Structure formats: C-alpha cells, structure tokens
Amino acid sequence: MSNLLVSVFCPDRTGLVSAITGHLFDVGADLGDTSFAVLGAGAEFSSVCRVPAHLTAQELTAELRTLPELDGAEISVTPFGLDADHGPSARVSHVVTVSGGDRPGLIARLSEAFTQYKANIVRMDAQRVAVQGGNRYVTRFAVAIPAASTESCLNTVANTAGELGLSCVADAQ
Questions:
Q1: CA torsion 34→90→125→111, rounded to 10°?
Q2: What pLDDT score was predicted for residue 128?
Q3: What phi and psi, each to the nearest 5 degrees, are found at residue 2?
Q4: CATH of domain 88-172
Q5: What span, in angstroms and rounded, lies between the C-alpha atoms of 33 and 83?
Q6: In degrees rounded to 5, what are phi and psi of residue 115?
Q7: Closest listed residue to residue 110, CA positions, set 167, 158, 170
Q8: Side by side, which strands form the sheet with 94-100?
Q9: How far is residue 55 from each of residues 51, 69, 76, 82, 85, measured CA to CA in Å?
Q10: Domain boundaries along the sequence of the chain
C-alpha cells in the first residue's frame, strides 16, 4: 500500500463527492483525512488515500479524468510523503465559531490570537451567508489548544472577536 494525495478543483455540481469517493472505493483506496468545500462557484475535494501498491498516481489521475462529473476539473494526484496519522497538535480540543458582519483582517487577527497560545488550527471554514438585510459571515476554527493555555486562549479570541463587533462561541470537543 502507498499513500497518495488526491486533489480536485472544478465547478460545483451535484454528485461530485459521490463520483470521486465511489471511484476511489472501486480501485481499493482507503480514505484518510478528507475534505470537501464549495468555494464560490467552484468546489474543492482533497484526501489522503491509502491505495494498493500497483496503482500509481499517474494511473489514478487518468482514471479520475474519465469521470463525467469531473469534466474540466483540475486533478492532482501525488505521493503523500508525510505521515498519514495525526500527531498530538492535530487533536481538536475546541471548535470556535465567530460570526457577524464582514471585518477586514478577521481571520488574520483570530489566527494570531491562537498562535500566541501555541494553539494549532486543524481546520478552518469561512462562509458568507445571505440573510435579510445583507450578509453574515461565519468562521469556524477547529483548534488544538494546549490544556495549560485553554482559558487564556479562548478569552483572548473572544475579546478579539468582541473588539471587532462579532459574536464568539467555543465548544469543547
């Protein structure tokens, strides 16, 4: 078995996740860390996959290109040379959700607050949500915060959000 990083970017359309993961299953791939997101009118899928040793990155790329759902997609399949298992800095301790109006620099300010306390951002998702009278921005951080600095880190993040006029909710995992 070997590990490959499968990345796909294309226009968003129904059936993408099903087509990609169905094909990966059919070729004997075991999905590890996997993400999918709609980005504007596009969609992005990426996964660290354990595949049978006989299946090369070039062969998998060529096979994925035959899927009608991936017509016009940017497809990249490369060897994944890092450890496919998480280290301690990727164990999510909290999900922090910040929401409100658009604030330039929001993600930069909040990520600086996490860094100050040696908290690792494991995943981040930011979306503009249409609501009556305008837009609402929702940003979610899945973070690994060292136990010794949890309270200080979360207070700093909440204070930073408050200074920007935004709400902040932290949920322990």
A1: -150
A2: 87
A3: -140, 160
A4: 3.30.70.260
A5: 11
A6: -60, -40
A7: 158
A8: 120-131, 134-144, 94-100, 167-172
A9: 7, 22, 15, 19, 21
A10: 2-79, 88-172
Q: Which long-range contacts (CB under 8 A, 24 or more apart) does 12-15 make?
A: 12/38, 12/41, 12/42, 12/43, 13/43, 13/69, 15/69
Residues 6+ apart with CB under 8 A from 68: 19
Cα 47 to Cα 154: distance, rounded to the nearest angstrom: 30
Instruction: Kindly report, residue by residue over 61-92, the tens digit of the pLDDT.
Output: 999 999 999 999 999 999 999 988 888 888 99
What's the rounded mean pLDDT across residues 132-160? 94
The burial of 134, by beta-carbon neighbours within 10 Å (0-12 exposed, 13-18 middle, 19 or more buried), is given as: exposed
Q: What is the pTM of this model?
A: 0.83
Query: Which superfamily, per CATH, for 2-79?
Result: ACT domain (3.30.70.260)
Averaged pLDDT, 114-123: 96
Q: Find the mean pLDDT for residues 123-145.
A: 90
Fold match between domain 2-79 and domain 88-172: yes
Structure tokens at 168: 């902040």
* pLDDT at residue 14, rounded to an integer: 94
Structure tokens at 48: 């660290």
**Read out DSSP for 95-124?**
EEEEEES--TTHHHHHHHHHHHTT-EEEEE
- What is d(CA 6, CA 20) in angstroms, rounded to the nearest whole number? 10
